[in-house]
Specification:
Length: about 280
């Protein structure tokens, strides 16, 4: 587990110097092997495969960034490395975002659907077990992972939402990230109600797939109250859904393998893969 040891060394060094380095400020991780699932510049995924004969379980990883072009998949690379070191293949999706040609509604959704489906084309050559696939998304990527769960409920063992923007109407009400939801969907819930019904996980319930949400109790980017309300609504609609609130954690600790939140995240993904 050399990758995990490297993260622990970084964490120890940060504690000793008293200057914990933000995940976003770390040097980028090694990139995975890239596969184009479409013709566009941002229509690709990175595959990381663990050692061993396989077949390997797979986590489809969807990064966040409030769907905006300036945030790409590089910042979630350390998360993917750590999951791969623990024996999981990772399929990290890039997609068109706000500011990219074709990004937002509906192009971002098309990319997540097409990029996830492309996994089937590489599974055989890379010893991937398509019977053990989960989707994991952080922040805005959590919204996309939950959306994907509704589309592919029969093919996924579950969805792990890490501080997900699970209720787009609520996110619009709160004007999160300076109105990112209206940019993403092209208007308010009153102006484009059909888009909110088709895109917001809270509007799409029940999803018909197991859902495990983790959320930092001190998250000031996506409020933990959103996950509380979402899980309550999901369970009321009959979904197998649960929330693990992580005391003391903020927004990015959930994708930082150096953080105290990491064991809960890794264990949740492991349990979702193992579960039937």
């Amino acid at each position: 587990m050399a990758t995990r040891r490297a993260f622990l060394s970084l964490s120890l060094a940060a504690r000793l110097t008293g200057a914990a380095q933000s995940l976003l400020d770390l040097p980028p991780s090694r990139t995975g092997v890239r596969f184009a699932y479409g013709a566009g510049e941002f229509q690709f995924a990175e595959l990381r495969v663990p050692a061993g004969a396989g077949p390997h379980p797979v986590a489809i990883v969807i990064h966040g960034g409030y769907w905006r072009a300036r945030y790409d998949l590089m910042h979630i690379g350390h998360f993917c490395d750590a999951l791969t070191a623990e024996g999981n293949a990772t399929w990290s999706l890039e997609y068109r975002r706000i500011g990219n040609p074709g990004g937002g509604w509906p192009g971002t959704f098309d990319d997540v659907r097409d990029g996830s489906a492309y996994l089937e084309k590489v599974a055989g050559a890379h010893r991937l077990d398509l019977g053990r696939v989960v989707a994991a998304g952080h922040s805005a990527g959590g919204q996309l992972a939950l959306w994907l769960g509704k589309q592919n409920a029969a093919r996924l063992r579950g969805v792990v939402g890490l501080a997900p923007v699970a209720d787009l109407r609520r996110a619009w009400d709160l004007k999160l990230s300076n109105g990112a939801v209206a940019e993403f969907l092209g208007g308010s819930p009153r102006e484009v109600p059909e888009r909110y019904r088709a895109a917001s996980p809270a509007d799409m319930l029940p999803l018909g797939v197991r859902q495990r949400l983790l959320h930092g109790a001190k998250d000031d980017t996506v409020p933990v109250s959103m996950s509380r309300g979402y899980v309550k609504a999901a369970r009321a609609k009959g979904d197998d859904a649960a929330l693990n609130e992580i005391p003391g954690a903020g927004h990015f600790e959930l994708i930082d393998p150096r953080s105290r939140a990491w064991p809960a995240v890794a264990n949740t993904i492991r349990e979702m893969i193992v579960g039937g």
